[in-house]
Amino acid sequence: MKKLVVLSGAGMSAESGLKTFRDADGLWEGHDVMEVASIEGWQQNPALVLDFYNQRRRQLLAAQPNIGHQLLADLEQHFEVSIVTQNVDDLHERAGSQKVIHLHGQLLESKSSIDDDLIYPCHQDIELGQTCERGSQLRPNIVWFGEMVPMLEPAAKLVAQADVLVIIGTSMQVYPAASLANFAPVDTPIYYIDPKPAINEAVQQLTNLVVIAETASQGLASLKEQLLEI
């Protein structure tokens, strides 16, 4: 079975009603991104950060996978599919995808503030004063600006083995995730699906690139037929 590796970003979940990461003005749900998505923001105002992610978690629990998520899960009948996502939602898994790497963490998990190995399922709000077994404040299991991306190396290894690479719903501008496509073998076909594809320097460097200027669901529906002929 050929190896199909998917890099997915916020546009993948947009059709499920989840807001993309940030607007053109740099704000995310009315907040400066660094206030709610950086280690400095957490240290300065943990109550604000907890409230922000509590709202995102409630939003996620009310959302459902969209046709794009389901099409990727269906492709497992024909390919060995691995998904590397920048998204912190679980919609790929809920649609049935079996192998998903979350670069930026998972919203439905909490973790210790002092021990990255203490991770817990989390489907409720996290409150100030809730602690891990070592007595430190619980926080969202999210990789914030200013923190290492521990899953980057496993993700790069997957891309390096790809027979086909599909990039969906990402601006390819958030590093280090944007560099992942460069690990693909030189002869690997690369498909970039986005309604407003950002043909920036990172994208221009890619060879064997096919751009599909459609939403995730539309683009995957048309791409599926092409992939089955590979």
TrEMBL record:
<keyword id="KW-0520">NAD</keyword>
<dbReference type="InterPro" id="IPR029035">
    <property type="entry name" value="DHS-like_NAD/FAD-binding_dom"/>
</dbReference>
<feature type="binding site">
    <location>
        <position position="56"/>
    </location>
    <ligand>
        <name>substrate</name>
    </ligand>
</feature>
<dbReference type="GO" id="GO:0005737">
    <property type="term" value="C:cytoplasm"/>
</dbReference>
<dbReference type="GO" id="GO:0036055">
    <property type="term" value="F:protein-succinyllysine desuccinylase activity"/>
</dbReference>
<dbReference type="InterPro" id="IPR026591">
    <property type="entry name" value="Sirtuin_cat_small_dom_sf"/>
</dbReference>
<feature type="binding site">
    <location>
        <begin position="200"/>
        <end position="202"/>
    </location>
    <ligand>
        <name>NAD(+)</name>
    </ligand>
</feature>
<dbReference type="GO" id="GO:0036054">
    <property type="term" value="F:protein-malonyllysine demalonylase activity"/>
</dbReference>
<dbReference type="InterPro" id="IPR027546">
    <property type="entry name" value="Sirtuin_class_III"/>
</dbReference>
<dbReference type="InterPro" id="IPR026590">
    <property type="entry name" value="Ssirtuin_cat_dom"/>
</dbReference>
<dbReference type="GO" id="GO:0017136">
    <property type="term" value="F:histone deacetylase activity, NAD-dependent"/>
</dbReference>
<feature type="binding site">
    <location>
        <position position="216"/>
    </location>
    <ligand>
        <name>NAD(+)</name>
    </ligand>
</feature>
<dbReference type="InterPro" id="IPR003000">
    <property type="entry name" value="Sirtuin"/>
</dbReference>
<dbReference type="GO" id="GO:0070403">
    <property type="term" value="F:NAD+ binding"/>
</dbReference>
<keyword id="KW-0808">Transferase</keyword>
<dbReference type="InterPro" id="IPR050134">
    <property type="entry name" value="NAD-dep_sirtuin_deacylases"/>
</dbReference>
<keyword id="KW-0963">Cytoplasm</keyword>
<feature type="domain" description="Deacetylase sirtuin-type">
    <location>
        <begin position="1"/>
        <end position="230"/>
    </location>
</feature>
<feature type="binding site">
    <location>
        <begin position="169"/>
        <end position="171"/>
    </location>
    <ligand>
        <name>NAD(+)</name>
    </ligand>
</feature>
<feature type="binding site">
    <location>
        <position position="53"/>
    </location>
    <ligand>
        <name>substrate</name>
    </ligand>
</feature>
<feature type="active site" description="Proton acceptor">
    <location>
        <position position="104"/>
    </location>
</feature>
<protein>
    <recommendedName>
        <fullName>NAD-dependent protein deacylase</fullName>
        <ecNumber>2.3.1.286</ecNumber>
    </recommendedName>
</protein>
<comment type="function">
    <text>NAD-dependent lysine deacetylase and desuccinylase that specifically removes acetyl and succinyl groups on target proteins. Modulates the activities of several proteins which are inactive in their acylated form.</text>
</comment>
<dbReference type="Pfam" id="PF02146">
    <property type="entry name" value="SIR2"/>
</dbReference>
<feature type="binding site">
    <location>
        <begin position="86"/>
        <end position="89"/>
    </location>
    <ligand>
        <name>NAD(+)</name>
    </ligand>
</feature>
<comment type="similarity">
    <text>Belongs to the sirtuin family. Class III subfamily.</text>
</comment>
<feature type="binding site">
    <location>
        <begin position="9"/>
        <end position="28"/>
    </location>
    <ligand>
        <name>NAD(+)</name>
    </ligand>
</feature>
